[in-house]
Design brief:
CATH class of the largest domain: Alpha Beta
CATH topology of the largest domain: pyruvate-formate lyase- activating enzyme
Number of helices: 17
Strand content: 15-25%
CATH architecture of the largest domain: Alpha-Beta Horseshoe
Largest sheet: 7 strands, mixed
Number of strands: 18
Radius of gyration: 23 Å
Structural class: alpha/beta
C-alpha cells in the first residue's frame, strides 16, 4: 500500500568508515516519535532507514515503487550531504520534501537554498525546532484535511523559500510542555533484527534508546541547542517507567541508552523515577549522560538501583581557565569528586575531552593529562573543538572559517569534516598528536594502577608515550600553518 508519508534516516554505515569501525548504530528515535504522532492522526507512515543500506539506489528504487507524496528527512551536520542527495531523489519522484532536525534548524538556508544536479530546489520546507506538532499540522495542510491552515505561512515552526530565494520564517512553534501527551516512539517501523544482529556481533549485547527529558538549561559556548533549546522539560517519572516496562516485555533489550542531553537537572525527578521503575519491575541496565556538578551521592545511588552501569561526563578539560572560557559552569574539582563517587558505587565513567578551544595553551593540555591520569575514567574520547552553526563559539570564530564549497557540504562522513579554521597557533598535526598523547598517558596510568596487559602491549604503550610527549612539545614550538580540520569524539 502506498504510504502517505515516508520518513527517512540518512545515515549510511556502509559509507562511513568510522561508523563501520565503531558499529554502534542507534535508532532514529526522533523520526519514530514523528511517525507515532502521524499514525495517531490516521496517516499511513513508513520509515526508510538507511543505516544498513548500501547506496542511494535503494532509496531511488523505493521511491520508484512506492511514490509517497510526502517525504520527511532528518539531518545532522555530519550527514547533510546524504540528506540533500536523498532529498533530490525524492523531489525527482514528485514528493513534497520536508527537512528537519538539528542542522536544518540551525541553518535552514543551506537546505532551502540548495540546488540539485539539475538546478532545481529539492527541499520545499524546513521544520524548525521541535517537530511533532508542526509535522501533524503540516500534514493536515498538505493532504487538505478539514480545518487545516490554507496557507503554509499560517503554520508555526516552518522555514520556507520566498519567491526571490530568501528564507521566510513563520511564527515560532511553542514547545511541548506536557511530554506525556506524546505517544511512545513507533519502533515497529524499524527492522529491529538488523540492529540486534549488528550490535551482538560487534559487542555481544544490543541496546535500545529512550529519552526522558528535552533541552538543556546550561550554556556551553560550543554546544548547539537546536530543536529542543535551552529549556528543560521532563516526562513524568511514571510515563518513562511505563515505556521501560513496555520495552522490557516486548523487545527484551540487553541494555538501554538514555539519550537525554542531561540526566538529573531535577534530582527529585530521578528519585521518583527510581521508585516508579522499581514498582513496575522495569529495571534494565542502562547508561546516561550527566554533569559533574549534578552527580550527587543520592542521585548516583538512585540511578545505580535501577540499573545504571555507565555515566558519560562532559569533562572537556582539566584546566579551569578553559572550562571558564567554554562557560561550562563546572569546576575541575567537581570532576574529581564525581568520578570518585561513581567508583565507590561501581558505576563506569566515560569522559568526553576537548582540545583546541580558543585560548588553550600547552600548560592547559598538561592539566588535562593530569586529570586523566589521576581520575582514571574507564573510557574517554577526545575531540578537536569544532564550531557548530548557531553557537557562540561559531560566532566567535566565524571570520576565520574557510569553506570548501558555496553550500558548505563539509562532511564526507561523521568524522571527516572538511571545514577549516584559522588559529593563532597549533595545526591539525599538533592536535592529532595531542589526542595520541592523551591516550598513551591514560594507558600508562592504568599500567601503574595495576593493569596487566601483555608484555608487548606494555612496551608499545611506553614507547608510544615517549614518542607522543616529545612530538607534542616539538610541534608546540614548530612554526606551522594554523589550520585545523575537525572531527568529533566517539559518542558525541
Amino acid at each position: 500500500m502506498r504510504p502517505d508519508i515516508t520518513l527517512v534516516h540518512p545515515l549510511f554505515i556502509a559509507k562511513d568508515p568510522v561508523e563501520r569501525r565503531l558499529m554502534t548504530p542507534y535508532f532514529p528515535l526522533g523520526l519514530m516519535y514523528l511517525a507515532a504522532v502521524l499514525r495517531e492522526r490516521g496517516y499511513r507512515v513508513e520509515l526508510f532507514d538507511c543505516t544498513f543500506r548500501q547506496d542511494y539506489t535503494e532509496f531511488e528504487d523505493y521511491m520508484r515503487r512506492k511514490r509517497p507524496p510526502v517525504v520527511g528527512i532528518t539531518s545532522l551536520i555530519t550527514i547533510r550531504r546524504h540528506a540533500l542527495i536523498l532529498a533530490e531523489i525524492a523531489h525527482h519522484y514528485g514528493a513534497t520534501v520536508i527537512l528537519g532536525g538539528p542542522d536544518p534548524t540551525g541553518l535552514p538556508e543551506r537546505y532551502l537554498g540548495y540546488r540539485g544536479s539539475h538546478g532545481e530546489f529539492p527541499v520545499d520546507i524546513v521544520v524548525f525546532d521541535e517537530g511533532e506538532l508542526t509535522i501533524r499540522e503540516l500534514a493536515d495542510h498538505l493532504f487538505g484535511r478539514a480545518g487545516a491552515p490554507r496557507d503554509l505561512r499560517e503554520i508555526p515552526g516552518l522555514r520556507l523559500r520566498g519567491a526571490n530565494g530568501q528564507v521566510i520564517a513563520t511564527a515560532p512553534r511553542p514547545l511541548i510542555n506536557d511530554l506525556d501527551t506524546l505517544p511512545f516512539p513507533a519502533r515497529d517501523l524499524v527492522e529491529m533484527e538488523d540492529y540486534r544482529r549488528a550490535w551482538r556481533k560487534a559487542h555481544g549485547y544490543w541496546p535500545l534508546s529512550i529519552i526522558n527529558t528535552r533541552g538543556c538549561p546550561y550554556a556551553c559556548t560550543w554546544c548547539q541547542k537546536a530543536v529542543f533549546g535551552r529549556t528543560h522539560r521532563t516526562r513524568s517519572p511514571a510515563n518513562s517507567a511505563e515505556e521501560m516496562r513496555h520495552l522490557k516485555e516486548v523487545y527484551q533489550p540487553d541494555f538501554l541508552r538514555v539519550v537525554d542531553d542531561i540526566t538529573g537537572v531535577n534530582p527529585k525527578w530521578v528519585l521518583q523515577w527510581r521508585d516508579e521503575v522499581l514498582a513496575r519491575d522495569a529495571v534494565i541496565p542502562f547508561e546516561c549522560l550527566t554533569r559533574v556538578n549534578l552527580a550527587s551521592e543520592a542521585m548516583l545511588s538512585a540511578l545505580k538501583e535501577i540499573g545504571c552501569r555507565r555515566i558519560y561526563f562532559g569533562a572537556e578539560s582539566g584546566s579551569q581557565k578553559v572550562l571558564n572560557a567554554m562557560k561550562k559552569g563546572t569546576k575541575v574539582q567537581q570532576i574529581y569528586e564525581a568520578t570518585a563517587r561513581c567508583k565507590r558505587l561501581g558505576i563506569e565513567t566515560y569522559f568526553f575531552m576537548m582540545v583546541g578551544y580558543p585560548g588553550e595553551e600547552l600548560e592547559d593540555l598538561e592539566q588535562s593529562v593530569r586529570l586523566l591520569r589521576e581520575t582514571l575514567p574507564d573510557r574517554f574520547s577526545t575531540t578537536i573543538a569544532y564550531p557548530l552553526p548557531g553557537t557562540p563559539f561559531y560566532e566567535q570564530v566565524r571570520d576565520r572559517l574557510m569553506f570548501d564549497s558555496e553550500w558548505n557540504i563539509d562532511w564526507d562522513y561523521t568524522a571527516q569534516n572538511r571545514l577549516l579554521f584559522r588559529r593563532e597557533k597549533y595545526d591539525t598535526r599538533f592536535y592529532r598528536w595531542v589526542i595520541r598523547w592523551f591516550q598513551k598517558e591514560w594507558e600508562d596510568a592504568r599500567l601503574r594502577a595495576g593493569w596487566q596487559p601483555s608484555f608487548l602491549r606494555r612496551a608499545r604503550i611506553r614507547i608510544g608515550l615517549w614518542i607522543a610527549r616529545r612530538m607534542v612539545r616539538l610541534l608546540a614550538r614548530w612554526p606551522s600553518r594554523p589550520l585545523v580540520r575537525f572531527h568529533p569524539a566517539e559518542g558525541r
